[in-house]
Amino acid sequence: MSLVNIATEEKRRVLEELADVKELFAARNWFPGTSGNLSMRVGEMDEEGFHFAITASGKDKTKRTPEDFLIVDQEGRPAETTNLKPSAETLIHCEIYRLTGCGAVFHVHTVFNNLISEYYGDHGAVPLQGIELIKAFNIWEEDAAISVPVLPNYADISAIAKLVPGVLNGQVPGILLRNHGIYAWGRDAFEAKKHLEAFEFLFETVYRSLLLRK
After folding, report:
1. What is the DSSP string of 28-90?
2. CA max distance for the chain
3. Are 58 and 34 in contact (CB under 8 A)?
4. What is the pLDDT averaged over residues 2-21?
5. Can you tell me the distance from the alpha carbon of 142 to that of 140, in angstroms, rounded to the nearest whole number?
6. Structure confidence by residue, pLDDT tens digits, 192-208
7. In terms of CB atoms within 10 Å, which of 118, 175, 179, 184 comes out highest?
């Protein structure tokens, strides 16, 4: 779908939703040092391509300005004339949208997701079992068990993006980068936020459980 065929109202709605989410997460200190990135798809998925709004690189996410976001295409290239640069990790967002058809992707750096991703990094996944908030992913089995993939944190973002298809799990809407942060996604901003909050709770629970065992 061409960006010119997407209603102005749709673009504004997406930008407003992203701004609200950014403000909420910034208040939780989930964007230390301008880290992290948020995106939402603009318009429908199309075999010819798609577009999404994403946080601009290097911006103070505790502030709300007209330069917080830009719209890019399925290759991560700006779709409109702009002086803004998309987040350095835009290519990972591109792969997640392409593979899942989701509506929003949120990425944050927190102490707990960094510690847990490093602790389980050599295993390639974080095992989670029997914790109530696994239900946030619409998994209702008693004593349910899931694994959250952990990818290496290469300096070359394109090298990370190439690994995403090999670890994606339709039941688990999240991927960790080792000693870096979590990517969580959903059908829309509400669901992506729900999933991200659930992951953060689960990682903190696992971390504190490990401490209790010592």
Report:
1. TT-SGGG--EEEEEEEEEETTEEEEEEEBTT--TTS--TTSEEEEETTS-BSS--S--B-TTH
2. 58
3. yes
4. 88
5. 6
6. 999 999 999 999 999 99
7. 184
**What are the phi and psi torsion angles at 213 (to 5°)?**
-75, -15
Query: What distance in Å separates the CA atoms of residue 38 and residue 33, rounded to the nearest whole number?
Result: 15
Reference 71, options 2, 161, 23, 21; nearest CA is: 2
How many of the other CB atoms lie within 10 Å of CB of 190? 13
Residue 46 backbone dihedrals phi, psi, to 5 degrees? -140, 140
| Dihedral sign for Cα atoms in the order 84, 85, 89, 91 | positive
Structure tokens at 186: 């959903």
Model pTM above 0.90: yes
CA distance 74 to 95: 9
Backbone φ and ψ of 73, nearest 5°: -95, -170
Summary count for the chain: helices (H), strands (E): 5, 8
